[in-house]
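To: structure desk
From: M.T.
Subject: fold request, one chain
Message: Could you run this one when you get a chance? Sequence is below, nothing fancy, just the single chain.
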Amino acid sequence: MLANAGEPKPPFRLHVDALLADESPVRGTLPPALLGGNLAKERRDAHSPGVQTAPGVRSWCDSACRPRLLGQVFGLSGDRKDCDVADTWRGEAADRLWNRIAPSPRKLLLMCLFAALLYGAANVGLCTIAGFETVGRRLSRLDWPYIAASLGGVAVALAGYRLAYEGISKVGGGPELTAAERWAAVIAGFGGFLSRGGASVDKFAMRAAGASERDAEVRVAGLDALEHAPLALGCCASAIYLLVTGRTDPPALDFVWPWAVAPPVGAAVAAFAATRYRDRFREAKGWRRWLGVALDAVWMLRQLVSEATGRGLPMVGMALFWAGEIYSLWAGMATFGYHMSVPSVILRDAVGYALSRRSAPFGGAGFIDLFLPLVLWDSGAPLAAAVAGCFVYRFFSLWLPLPATIAELPKLRTIGGGPSLGEPEPRVADNASC
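Reply: Done. Structure tokens follow.
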């Protein structure tokens, strides 16, 4: 029994309960996200004055928007200006975002072929520079145990990414995803191939599970910030180690010093700005709105450490992600007889991933395959070893997860009660528009 259940409910709440009841004739016309995800939990919390959210936990999220939205849709109470119209997760909005992730099978096949062409062209071009004969001699040194080690590194990275994603989705009472739904979102986001140069997969999963527009944006930005934080920390520690031990040629001294200084200074500035200015930009428009999202994302990292549900495990998960990625790259190089120092690999991996798989189009096919070997070569690695090692690493991290990603698309599409692939999206009646 809920607290204060004997007290009369406000008329608006009575209307909402009637509309959401299983026998309600209009239930089938509601957008899926309003019925799925976290709505039942929010209704229980709204009816229980004794249920309180910890101060500041979801201050980035307009969690009260959805009940007001129901009032607008059905002509009840509620002020339009209190709710962003973008929070109406209608069929058209869901379809637009979904089409960015998974277009028609024919277009998806063309995307795969185009990415494979970029992947192959980058490697052929680098082999031409290094010399096919030189690359052939390097390939003859193939050491199979390191191939298995490189694959194992990618598996560890996937496990770490899943742990980090779970923390981001749960912090502050976020949208609830089943284990199968979370796995579908994780495997689709891990390879980065379907993200199309952005975080479309993550945003779709969170919006479909019931998160508001801003809540989803902040969580996606928080995942991006969490992705880069451990790497920046590792680069800083590696740079300091290289400076202290005098091992700075290669990499060059003017390359190492910025990595030793910039990460802690940048972290301090970001933490100060998030603490002091995030409230000021939360309701802003234009570029200030995105600045507010970024500051709230930085604040979310603090919540990941302080909140009882996480206790820093997402940070550990993302550190595990990068440890697996860097080890996979190191093992890929070692497969062909070149053993690079760990601090150098960390620094060069960070530079080579100027755009990560999740942020670059087609998982960085072509761009990362061209840029990363050149960065490793600049740090002293033979170009032939860098090309061959990156080829192995990128095959395991980009192409190997792709079949699993495509296989999980139907489950990803049905998050929050959405239609399965090939099933028409239910539409809201014309007189029910917000």
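Reply (cont.): The chain is about 65% helix and 0% strand. Let me know if you need anything else for the meeting.
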